[in-house]
Amino acid sequence: MFWLVMPIGSVGKVSLVVVETLGINPTDTRVGGIKLGVNYQYVLNTKGSTPAEVLGIDYKATLKPALDEFMDNIKKSSKAKLEELISLQQQSVENASKIESKRNRLAALQSRIDEGEAQLNLLKKEIEDYTSRCAVEAKRMLEDVQREEHNLDLVEKESEEFLKTSKLKLHDVIKQCDEETQMCARELLMLIDTVSKHKEYMESTISQMKNELLETTGAVADAHKASLKLQFGSIFN
Ligand SMILES: *[C@@H]1O[C@H](CO)[C@@H](O)[C@H](O)[C@H]1NC(C)=O
Which residues form a coiled coil (predicted)? Predict the structure, then answer.
């Protein structure tokens, strides 16, 4: 910010044109002076009638260098501003190219995302197909299992029936065997009885024959003795 000083030719009048934003009343006499540049203050003589009187006798020596310095500052700041502008423009170009490359990258990413989505959709469809095939297969297997189960049920029933009849047959056979065994036992007992009776009979017969043999033997001996007595009685007597 800066103030611009503009002396006017008429007697005892000084007009100050102030940059609007400062908000200072230019005719305020209490200001008592004006600010030049950043750190220079110049005191005005408000009672003077010529520019030289208003600005003071030594304005050339004091105000001129200040104005020169002020102009220098303006030049310097303009140069700085221009340099800043150039750098900003350069930055802007760089930013634009960055933005462009980002946009390209974004487009590439978008196309990759699209590709991925397409693949995903394909995969989804494959999975759905596979799932439905699996469901069909599972249904078929379930039916097979049920049929097999039914067959097994039939076989089980037949087996139970067979087992039942086999048990009945076995029972009959055992019963028959028992009866036959008992019959055999009875026959055996009868046979034993017969044999023992026969043995008794044989024993009695044998003892009878023994007695008869003894009797016969005795008789034969007696007869023999008697005949001998008759034959050789004279010798023994
Ligand atoms: C360039 O971009 C940076 C951020 O990346 C930003 O701070 C700067 O203000 C931008 N410059 C211009 C001139 O747009």
Answer: 99-165
Q: Which residues pair with 35 in a beta bridge?
A: 41
Q: Mind listing the pLDDT tens digit for each residue in 57-86?
A: 566 676 778 888 889 999 999 999 999 999
With 0-12 / 13-18 / 19 or more C-beta atoms within 10 angstroms meaning exposed / middle / buried, residue 55 is: buried
Strand-strand pairing, 3-7 and 14-18: antiparallel
CB 63 within 8 A of CB 55: yes
DSSP 26-52: TT-GGG-EEEETTTEEEE--TT-SSHH
Distance 88 CA to ligand 1 centre (A): 8
Give yes or no for residue 93 CB within 6 A of ligand 1.
no
pTM: 0.37
Check pocket membership of 90 for ligand 1, CB cut-off 6 A. no
**Mean pLDDT over all residues of the chain?**
82
Which atom number of ligand 1 is nearest to the Cα of residue 94?
1
* Cβ 88 under 6 angstroms from ligand 1: yes
Q: What's the pLDDT score for residue 21? A: 33
End-to-end, the C-alpha distance of the chain in Å comes to 213
The pLDDT of residue 204: 95
Average pLDDT over residues 35-64: 61
More confident call, 228 vs 135: 135
Cα–Cα distance for residue pair 192/186, rounded to 1 Å: 10
